[in-house]
Design goal:
By secondary structure, the protein is an alpha/beta fold. It is built from six helices and seven strands, in the order H-H-E-H-E-H-E-E-H-E-H-E-E. The radius of gyration is 17 Å and the shape is globular. Bound molecules: S-adenosylmethionine (SAM).
Length: about 230
């Protein structure tokens, strides 16, 4: 499978300066990766281990803090949490958070981030596969950012079915969705908005949609904040 997060520079990177997970530019050439299947933890392990994480925001998106600040704290699930910036932020505001990632290297990055912070003891961090993990307590908000677009399009039906299973009536699925023409190359795999609505609407109603600021160049102009509510 072709892979934009493999050995090609992304839009915000100079060809010889891949972003590292610390946000600094490296002078090393973009790595040539051995793994090509984003369905596997090894694909993501390799990118985290080689510090090639061009999706990494190095912090929390403004749309996320705006949304969370308007809600009463409730159990949140963050699938594909990466470095867990949002989990840390929520915990520091008193939210109960479960953050999962199936990549051992991603979980290690999350642990390293959390280790430097105070007030994050309530983050429940697990190395786990979204498609089989059973969160406790059940979430009232499932946060999406750069997770759906990390999955091959062939897994979109599975994503929606699992979201529907995990979300009790009234539970929110809200976050940043990467919208656009679906290409064969990825990740990230953009999704046409009409397809997203067709997939989710049997289970969720879209109750809010808004433009966002502060997107990384790789997502710029194509990220939107969508809030879906699980139907009864
Ligand atoms: C593009 S990264 C985004 C990370 C994070 N959400 C962020 O915004 O920085 C996608 C993440 O999803 C994780 N992932 C992919 N498939 C997964 C699955 N089935 N279960 C759990 N995590 C998964 C990967 O390991 C990777 O850390």
């Amino acid at each position: 499978m072709a892979d934009k997060w493999a050995d090609k520079p992304v839009a915000h990177q100079a060809a010889d300066t891949p972003l590292t997970s610390g946000g600094a530019a490296s002078t090393a050439a973009p790595p040539a990766f051995a793994t090509r299947d984003p369905n596997t933890p090894e694909f993501w392990d390799e990118r985290f281990e080689r510090r090639f994480t061009p999706w990494d925001q190095q912090g929390v998106p403004p749309a996320f803090t705006e949304f969370a600040s308007g809600l009463t704290p409730c159990p949140v699930l963050i699938p594909g949490c990466g470095s867990a910036y949002e989990a840390a932020w929520l915990a520091q505001q008193g939210w109960p958070v479960t953050a999962i990632d199936f990549s051992a290297a991603a979980v290690q990055a999350a642990r390293a981030h959390l280790a430097g912070l105070v007030g994050v003891e309530t983050v429940h961090l697990h190395q786990a596969d979204f498609f089989t993990f059973e969160p406790t307590p059940p979430p009232r908000w499932i946060y999406e950012r750069a997770f759906l677009c990390a999955l091959p399009p062939s897994r979109r039906g599975d994503y929606v079915r699992r979201m529907a299973e995990l979300a009790a009536p009234g539970c929110l699925l809200a976050g940043l969705f990467f919208l656009g023409q679906s290409g064969k190359k990825g990740p990230p795999f953009a999704i046409v908005e009409a397809e997203l609505h067709d997939l989710l609407s049997p289970y969720f109603e879209c109750i809010d949609e808004r433009a966002v600021s502060g997107s990384l160049a790789v997502f710029a102009g194509a990220e939107r904040w969508l809030t879906w509510r699980r139907l009864s």
